C-alpha cells in the first residue's frame, strides 16, 4: 500500500513539474525595462499596439517608445546603447558592418517599400497622372518638379532618385530634390506649393489628401512599384551582443508584437483605439484610413526570408549605395530564431 501511495505521489509530482515547466516557457520571465527608438511611421503599428494594449506588460516588458527625427539618429542611439531596439533598414546594417559594428534584424515589419507619393492636385491634373496611369508614365511625370525629401541620403531621397532613374532622368538635373524635414514640414511645404510632391509612409500622405491639397499618385505600399515588392524594406534591429544575451526577452517581445499583429488584422476598430495613444493629434478617421491602406504592406508574422534580403542588397549594389554585397543568408544580417515555429 505504501509503495502504491509513493508511486502515485511521484506521478502527481511529475505531472505538476511538467505543467509548471510548460507554463514557464510560455509565460513572462523577469520584468524588464527596454527602450525602443522609432521614426513615428505607421509601419510600426504592431509595436505601438502591443505597447498600448498591454501585451508587452503581460510579457513582463516595460516598453518605452522614443520617437527620433531620422533613421540616422535612431541607429546612433542603438549602437551607443541608449536604446535596445530600432526600426532600421538593411543599408544601415551594411554600413555598420563596414565600420566593424553589427546589428541583427529580428523582426520584419514590411513586405515592400511603404513610401506613398502624394502630389498637389493642380500638378497632378496638369501632368495628367493618377494611380490609374501606367507606372512608367507616373515616374516620367516627375520631370521638372520640386520634390520634397526629409534629408539627403534618407529613404525619401534614395527612392525618389530611383524613380527618376527608372524614367531615364538625371535626379540632379531633371528635378529639384528639396530637403524639407519631417512629415509636418513636408505637409506645410506641399500646402504652400514650395514643393509639388513628396513621398512618405502613412499616415502623412493621407493627411494631405484628406485636407484637399494632395492626391496619392504612387502607392508603393500597395505594390505599385514591382521592383520594390517582396523587399526587405525595414525591420526591427538589435545589437548582436544584446541578441545573444537576451534570447528569452526577444521571444517575449516577438510574442507581444505578433499578438498585436493578429488584432490589427481581425479588429481594426480596436487597433485604431490603441494607436491613438501614439497618434493623439491624428484624426481617428484618417488613422483608420491609413491603417487600412498600410496593412497589406506589413508582414503578418515578422519573418524574414533570404530572397527578400537578397533583393534589397542587390538594389543597393545596383544603385551604387554599397561597393559590395554581403551574404543574404540567415545569421549574417537577420535571423528568425526568436519568432519560433
Secondary structure blueprint with pairings:
Elements: H1 2-26, E1 32-38, H2 45-52, H3 55-58, E2 61-67, H4 71-80, E3 85-88, H5 90-98, E4 103-108, E5 116-119, H6 121-127, H7 135-140, E6 146-149, H8 155-166, E7 176-179, H9 183-191, E8 197-200, H10 204-210, E9 215-219, E10 235-239, H11 240-245, H12 247-266, H13 268-275, H14 284-294, H15 306-318
Parallel strand pairs: 1-2, 1-3, 6-7, 6-8
Antiparallel strand pairs: 3-10, 4-10, 5-8, 5-9
Verbal overview:
Helix content is 45%, strand content 15%. The protein is an alpha/beta fold. The protein has a 5-stranded mixed β-sheet with strand order 2-1-3-10-4, sandwiched between helices. Strands 7-6-8-5-9 form a 5-stranded mixed β-sheet, sandwiched between helices. Helix 8 links the parallel strand 6 and strand 7. The longest helix is centred in the N-terminal third of the chain and has 25 residues. It is globular.
Amino acid at each position: 500500500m505504501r509503495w502504491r501511495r509513493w508511486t502515485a505521489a511521484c506521478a502527481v509530482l511529475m505531472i505538476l513539474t511538467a505543467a509548471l515547466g510548460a507554463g514557464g516557457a510560455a509565460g513572462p520571465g523577469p520584468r524588464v525595462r527596454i527602450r525602443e527608438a522609432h521614426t513615428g511611421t505607421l509601419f510600426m503599428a504592431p509595436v505601438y499596439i502591443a505597447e498600448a494594449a498591454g501585451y508587452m506588460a503581460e510579457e513582463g516588458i516595460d516598453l518605452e517608445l522614443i520617437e527620433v527625427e531620422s533613421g540616422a539618429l535612431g541607429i546612433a542611439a542603438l549602437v551607443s546603447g541608449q536604446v535596445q531596439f530600432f526600426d532600421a533598414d538593411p543599408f544601415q546594417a551594411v554600413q555598420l558592418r563596414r565600420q566593424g559594428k553589427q546589428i541583427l534584424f529580428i523582426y520584419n515589419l514590411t513586405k515592400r517599400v511603404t513610401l506613398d507619393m502624394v502630389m498637389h492636385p493642380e500638378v497632378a491634373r496638369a501632368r495628367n497622372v493618377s494611380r490609374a496611369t501606367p507606372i512608367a508614365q507616373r515616374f516620367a511625370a516627375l520631370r521638372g518638379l520640386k520634390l520634397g525629401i526629409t534629408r539627403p541620403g534618407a529613404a525619401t531621397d534614395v527612392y525618389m532618385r530611383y524613380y527618376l532613374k527608372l524614367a531615364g532622368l538625371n535626379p540632379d538635373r531633371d528635378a529639384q530634390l528639396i530637403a524639407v524635414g519631417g512629415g509636418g514640414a513636408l505637409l506645410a511645404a506641399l500646402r504652400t506649393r514650395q514643393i509639388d510632391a513628396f513621398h512618405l509612409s502613412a499616415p502623412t500622405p493621407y493627411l494631405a489628401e484628406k485636407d484637399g491639397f494632395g492626391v496619392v499618385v504612387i502607392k508603393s505600399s500597395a505594390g505599385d512599384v514591382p521592383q520594390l515588392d517582396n523587399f526587405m524594406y525595414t525591420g526591427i534591429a538589435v545589437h548582436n551582443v544584446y541578441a545573444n544575451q537576451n534570447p528569452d526577452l526577444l521571444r517575449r517581445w516577438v510574442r507581444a508584437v505578433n499578438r498585436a499583429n493578429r488584432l490589427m488584422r481581425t479588429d481594426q476598430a480596436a487597433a485604431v483605439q490603441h494607436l491613438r495613444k501614439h497618434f493623439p493629434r491624428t484624426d481617428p478617421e484618417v488613422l483608420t484610413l491609413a491603417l487600412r491602406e498600410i496593412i497589406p504592406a506589413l508582414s503578418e508574422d515578422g519573418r524574414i526570408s533570404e530572397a527578400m534580403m537578397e533583393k534589397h542588397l542587390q538594389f543597393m549594389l545596383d544603385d551604387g549605395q554599397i561597393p559590395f554585397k554581403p551574404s543574404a543568408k540567415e545569421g549574417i544580417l537577420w535571423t528568425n530564431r526568436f519568432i519560433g515555429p
